[in-house]
Write a structure and sequence with these properties.
single chain; 192 residues; mainly alpha; 3-stranded antiparallel sheet; 5 strands
Length: 192
């Protein structure tokens, strides 16, 4: 057994375009400070590092050694700070909100297809869905909305025939793999 003893610190000067984090991230604690170099007196950093060098490091170590961590749960996800949400929100595509609106309109069904979504979408979002240049983004957008594709085990291409058209069927991700397949099969048979 090898213990996981690696801890990383990632720094960036760019809160909203320096890092990608999904909303369900459980690994990153995000801290942010809006201060700039102009907020500090000219000798601040020289004096601080001088203090560290003349025994300050020992004071910091002593403080940390005495700090009570009894209530700290190392397995719990870190708190989601406002800076965390700033990073997440900066990486959200406008299509995510439009897709969520259409799925709400459809009643957030257990199973759906892009054709069903497109038929309920507004003109601009419908055009975006039909634009082949966006085809690779759609599975990611569907995943963000809580839907995963279900592969047809009986078709070489994995697609399902729904209303005489081959297409991908998307199912709510919280369903078990067996339930996903069963829901997709019922959907194809017209049980909606």
């Amino acid at each position: 057994v090898v213990s996981n003893v690696c801890g990383m610190v990632i720094t960036t000067n760019y809160k909203t375009d320096g890092l990608y984090l999904p909303a369900d991230d459980r690994r990153h604690y995000v801290a942010w400070c809006d201060l700039t170099k102009d907020d500090f007196p000219p000798n601040y950093w020289t004096d601080l590092y001088g203090w560290y060098g003349s025994g300050g490091n020992g004071h910091v170590a002593a403080y940390l050694a005495e700090y009570d961590l009894a209530s700290f749960d190392s397995k719990a996800p870190p708190p989601k700070t406002s800076a965390f949400w700033d990073v997440v929100d900066a990486n959200r595509a406008p299509e995510d909100a439009e897709l969520a609106d259409v799925l709400d309109k459809l009643g957030n069904p257990k199973v759906t297809t892009l054709i069903a979504i497109s038929s309920s979408a507004g003109h601009e979002f419908r055009q975006w869905l039909r634009d082949r240049r966006n085809a690779r983004q759609i599975p990611h957008r569907m995943d963000t909305a809580g839907y995963v594709p279900v592969r047809n085990p009986d078709a070489k291409d994995g697609l399902w025939r729904v209303e005489s058209r081959r297409q991908v069927i998307y199912v709510r991700h919280e369903l078990s793999p067996r339930d996903r397949l069963a829901v997709a099969q019922r959907f194809v048979k017209g049980d909606r």
